[in-house]
Amino acid sequence: MLTLKVINENSEEIIRKLAKKRFDAQGVINQIIALDEKRRTSQTLLDSRLSEINALSKSIGGLMKEGKKNEAETAKQQVSELKELSKANEAGLREAETAIQDLLVTIPNLPHDSVPEGRSAEDNLVERSGGNIPQLASDAVPHWDLAKKYDLIDFELGVKITGAGFPVYKGKGSRLQRALINFFLDNAREAGFVEVQPPYVVNAASGFGTGQLPDKEGQMYHVGLDDLYLIPTAEVPVTNLYRDVILEEKDLPVKNTAYSACFRREAGSYGKDVRGLNRLHQFDKVEIVCIDKPENSYRRLDEMVRYVQTLVEKLELPWRILRLCGGDMSFTSALTFDFEVYSAAQQRWLEVSSVSNFESYQANRLKCRYRDEDRKTQLCHTLNGSALALPRIVAALLENNQTPDGIRIPKALVPYTGFEMID
Predict the structure, then answer these.
(1) Around 329, how many Cα atoms within 13 Å sit in the side-chain half-sphere?
(2) DSSP readout, 146-187?
(3) In 3D, which of 342, 261, 336 has the Cα closest to residue 304?
């Protein structure tokens, strides 16, 4: 969330930068500045009246001692009147503060200067790529057919139990899921991330802290009776571990990893993008989260991107990294790199990870700060990335490694699966 100070001092720059995200900020910025002027006026009047009340209140005792009863009563009446006026000032102040807060949460994060112009995913820039796209036999089939052939995933059974987008994994399909989770967690720990196991439901304060709430698109599952939300990613509970926390500079960076099931309504999804594992309502993912000083956050982002690259390379998948354009970025991100792997049977690229720097946007909502060497508190920068999301990784692994004898397991994953082939 942007601060009032930033908005008041850089309003034109904010409007210009947010245009890159296809967000017209002129109106809301003008409203905030006008409301802040009203807030400051109300605060000045309130302070003046409170000062006058204090002075009059102190004088009453002296007037009574001097026998000036009428003057003392007049002073009491003035105090009473000023208190009523102060109540009106306080109400106006609270009203302005609430209106400002309501508007602030509607403004996206500012994009980094390196974010390219563009309206949609077609305008994203390919940063780099690697791996070899396999040449499959003419009778190669997509992963949903392979899952049925080898009895790995039952999509219809998931529909029976819950609904579309909730598959049931079976046999070696279940073991492959567990192997990938452990593989990703072990790699994260070796890279210096401390593993945590967070709750899968969060309160509204947690959803607000990382920017999922207010949820304008209705993508989070809400448990109305308890006013709790199923997490769309472990980013939410893990980052909220540091809500209302002041970290010591010497303890930065904070690096955490967590496995969780993730729940997303995926409202509006349709067509080929939802076939098989391409888009689910429940899926498994390992997340990495970093918290650091502002001057270090983009170096940290580069490290996280390079780390995710090592994972797709170890899985022997063809990959590419995209720098997202302004029109395809999330509400909260300042800079995002997406990872895609190539699905040879579907002949298309599948997104498997987003790695983002949120700068101080989340930290301001979370009140996540650090104490510097001068003992002053400063807002942290927060970063996170998928490392990795399982469904499309599984889809690509199954499709790209299909052979006449079965599905080959990448060498790095064999110690985790306990088998080299699915046959």
Answers:
(1) 33
(2) HHHHTT-EEHHHHHHHT-TT--EE-HHHHHHHHHHHHHHHHH
(3) 336
The Cα–Cα gap between 381 and 360 comes to 5
Q: Are 36 and 3 in contact (CB under 8 A)?
A: no
Total residues belonging to the chain: 423
Burial class (CB in 10 A: 0-12, 13-18, 19+), 44: exposed
Residues 6+ apart with CB under 8 A from 68: none
Q: How far apart are CA 312 and CA 132, in angstroms?
A: 12
Question: Tens of pLDDT along the chain (423 residues)?
Answer: 898 999 999 999 999 999 999 999 999 999 999 999 999 998 998 889 888 898 988 898 888 888 888 888 888 898 888 888 888 888 889 999 999 999 999 999 999 999 999 999 999 999 999 999 999 999 999 999 999 999 999 999 999 999 999 999 999 999 999 999 999 999 999 999 999 999 999 999 999 999 999 876 688 999 999 999 999 999 999 999 999 999 999 999 999 999 999 999 986 555 556 799 999 999 999 999 999 999 999 999 999 999 999 999 999 999 999 999 999 999 999 999 999 999 999 999 999 999 999 999 999 999 999 999 899 999 999 999 999 999 999 999 999 999 999 999 999 999 999 999 999
133 to 129, 341, 389, 393: CA distances (angstroms): 11, 10, 20, 15
Instruction: Please report where in the chains the tokens 């001692």 appear, as a residue.
Output: 65
**How far apart are alpha carbons 10 and 414 in whole angstroms?**
54
| Cβ count within 10 A of residue 122 | 9
Tokens of 2: 């942007």
- Nearest alpha-carbon partner for 312 in 337, 290, 331: 337
Helix, strand or coil for residue 246? strand
Q: What are phi and psi of 129, to 5 degrees?
A: -150, 170
Angle at 280 between CA 274 and CA 282, to 5 degrees: 170
Which residue reads 């502002």 in tokens?
A: 294
SS3 sequence, 21-60?
A: CCCCCHHHHHHHHHHHHHHHHHHHHHHHHHHHHHHHHHHH
Answer whether 0.85 is exceeded by the pTM: yes
